[in-house]
Amino acid sequence: MSEEPGTLERAVEATLFAAEAPMSVEALAGHLGGLALGDVREALGLLEARYRARGVHLVERGGRWHFETAPDLAHLLRREKEQVRRLSRAATEVLAIIAYHEPVSRAEIESIRGVQTSAGTLDVLMEAGWIRPAGRREVPGRPVIYATTPDFLDHFGLASRRDLPGIDELRAAGLLDPVDEAMEAAMRFEPDEADESAIGDDENLAD
Predict the structure, then answer these.
(1) Which domain holds residue 119?
(2) Is 145 exposed, middle or buried (0-12, 13-18, 19+ CB in 10 A)?
(3) What is the distance between the alpha carbons of residues 65 and 9, in angstroms, rounded to a whole number?
(4) Spans of the chain, pLDDT less than 70
(5) CATH number for position 53
(6) Domains in the chain: how many in total?
(7) pTM of whole model > 0.85?
(8) 98 part of a folded domain
């Protein structure tokens, strides 16, 4: 590849525009002939800055890069009103627990919540593309453990899980009920990997 200034940036730009899915730095480097990862990161940084004031932005979500419509222009591309599907309280709690403590098993989620979690709740979150099975815990019974997905980060506008808000931020934004001690405990709880027993009664199984 020519070392002419701008050539690498243009190659990365063209590759991302043509890609069917977001690409990691490693994938880009391999696609472009085994380039140095540092060179690809530098090109991505230049492109990100170049597109910052444009109608599309170059963004990183979960270590993968893609172009997306600038947030302030997204409404121009909507041709019809979207039907908002609100998560149940149980699904919201489960998603929060997985996001803050991944990877976690269903029994660990139940231990944090204090009630059983229906399979339907996990199915809803997997159908939304926000969580995924992430292997099995190496304890008796080898339960499945769950983690969030790049789609979860993309939907909530997070570059990584390090960008998840803390309790003080949630409370300041009015998103944490002062009496909701269960959610605060969920965000601080350290699951006991050896405790795979479910406790409590199931909440609404239709969640």
Answers:
(1) 89-188
(2) buried
(3) 14
(4) 1-5, 78-85, 167-207
(5) 1.10.10.10
(6) 2
(7) no
(8) yes
